[in-house]
Structures are given as C-alpha cells and as structure tokens.
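thread from #wetlab-drylab

HS: before we spend reagent money on co-crystallization trials with fe (ii) ion, can we at least see a predicted complex? here's what I'd submit
DV: go for it
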Amino acid sequence: NPFSLDMSIFFPFLLLLFRFHVDDSEVTLNVCLGKQFSGGELFFRGIRCEKHVNTETQSEEIFDYSHVPGRAILHRGRHRHGARATTSGHRINLLLWCRSSVFRELRKYQKDFSGWCGECLREKKERQRQSVAATKMELLKREGEAPKEAAKEAAS
Ligand SMILES: O=C(O)CCC(=O)C(=O)O
Ligand SMILES: [Fe+2]
C-alpha cells in the first residue's frame, strides 16, 4: 500500500518527548535519593538488541515504576526505558552504568538474542509455530495419501 505510513519515522520525536532510550550499559543501577517530588515515574518497554531497538512493545512488556526515595532499581541497559517529567519538587537519582567488555565482545559473534531480546524471542517463537504448522500439514497430506496407496495396491 503506497499510502501506508511508516510510524517508525516518529520514533526519534517520541524519544525526545519522553526521553525514551536504552543505556550504553549492560546493567544500570538507578537509586532514588529523594527528595520530595511527584511525577518522574520510570517506564520500561521491553529489552531489545541493537537491531530491534525500535520494534513494537508487546503488552506484557509494559512496566511502569514509581520510584521511592531510599530504593534502587537494577535493570538491563538494553531495557528500553525513560522517566516522565517531574511535576513538582526535586527528584535526585544516582545512576551507575555498568559495562561488560566480555559481553560486548561475545555479542559481535551472535545473531540470535532470544535469550534476552523480546523481539528475537518473538521471531523465534513465530518460526517454531510455522515449522510445527508445516509439519502438521505434511502429516495430514500423507494420511490423506495413505488410503489411496492402499486402494491402488489392493487393485493391482
Ligand atoms: O531519570 C531517571 O531516573 C532515569 C535516567 C536514565 O534512565 C538515565 O540517565 O539513563
Ligand atoms: Fe537510562
């Protein structure tokens, strides 16, 4: 359809609007130090590899979190996230971005990240579903042919 609009062109703007991003880290520690504030909720929208960073969020990947002073959240750097605007007061957070050179080196030689990327996993499940469906079709076809073969043999 030449008139369909690829919504992904809006992604950089959405990113600016909500500061929705992945961190350049393997693991991020986000500590809420205070003080009194409202707003500033963290929102998470699924873990993605580099190739799938802009793909759609599955409903089960939606996770919002209201930070509480004195608590910390530890998340994967590749977990897409952002913080909503602080609507009043002061919000102070300590962020620690932890990188792993080993993880990064190994990642260069891998193509399938279904162990942690939500989209790689979705694609893998879809491939499996299709392969099961194709096998079922093949078996049904053979079952349909078997009586014909038997009839032919009986006739000869
Ligand atoms: O504002 C926050 O709590 C999150 C900030 C964040 O995700 C970051 O700086 O990487
Ligand atoms: Fe972040």
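DV: The pocket of 2-oxoglutaric acid (ligand 1) is lined by residues 23, 30, 42, 81, 83, 93, 95 (CB under 6 Å).
HS: ok that's useful, forwarding to the group
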